[in-house]
Amino acid sequence: MNVELQFWGVTARLAGSDRRRVTLTENATVADAIELLRGDAALAKELPRCAYAIGADLVALDHPLSEGDELSVLPPVSGG
Amino acid sequence: MRADDLDYSRIQPEPLALEPLLLATERPDCGALAIFAGAVRNHHEGAAVSHLIYTAHAALCDKIIRSIEQETREQFNVPECRIVHRVGQLGIGDVAIYAVVRAPHRAEAFAALRYAVDSTKHRAPIWKEEFYPDGSSSFVSGCCIADGFEPPEYLKQLPQKANT
Q1: In chain A, which residue's Cα lies nearest the Cα of B150?
Q2: SS (H, E, C) chain B
Q3: ipTM of this predicted complex?
Q4: A60 to chain B: which residues are within 8 Å by CB?
Q5: How do the pLDDT tens digits run along chain B, 164 residues long?
Q6: Which of A12, A27, B14, B162 shows its CA 20 to 30 Å from the CA of B136?
């Protein structure tokens, strides 16, 4: 299945883009999608401090993905 | 969700206006009005700053800020709490966040306002990119919102939400 990763904050800079389409096997989870990013050293360093969301819902690493999901990668926040 | 919560987004690209927040929260049983305005500084950790760009995951951010407002009302027993945060490019002195709390008395208004502002800074998916006079920029290091990360000590000391 195809899932679109959306990078926010510093992760967009580290990924070189704010979006990346990835292809995963059926029954893949958020963790499986994030695992694909570990080859990118700069981005991988940031991942342990990231949260993840689909739409307006935060999701855990074991959350199952569906075809067409847009998975947001949310680094530490700095509003205010 | 209260009906009057639907009238505007908590994340706005336009310059923030305080007056609508005051009008929307006005009530005769509240003698205390506490307001926080966070404005853009011209320095950070010893470096000169020329301007900022805020980005936000708008849908999630709106949802989280609304839940912070509700928590603040419930935990501090204050009838009104509104928070709005700006996104986009902001110059020095521009207001990035307004938070408004109304309460019968000042003690709970001050405490609730601090909780609302600190919670927004630590939980709302907003990112601050600082720009420097030489044209370079960097993202300000912030707070992790993933499960399992401990909140700062001073947020732990505040009343915990009883019904969740």
Answers
A1: A49
A2: CCHHHHHCCCEECCCCCCHHHHHHHCCCCCCEEEEEEEECCCEECCEECCEEEEEECHHHHHHHHHHHHHHHHHHHCCCEEEEEEECEEEECCCEEEEEEEEECCHHHHHHHHHHHHHHHHHHCCEEEEEECCCCCEEECCCECCCCCCCCCHHHHCCCCCCCC
A3: 0.95
A4: 147
A5: 444 444 569 999 999 999 999 999 999 999 999 999 999 999 999 999 999 999 999 999 999 999 999 999 999 999 999 999 999 999 999 999 999 999 999 999 999 999 999 999 999 999 999 999 999 999 998 999 987 655 555 545 544 443 33
A6: B14
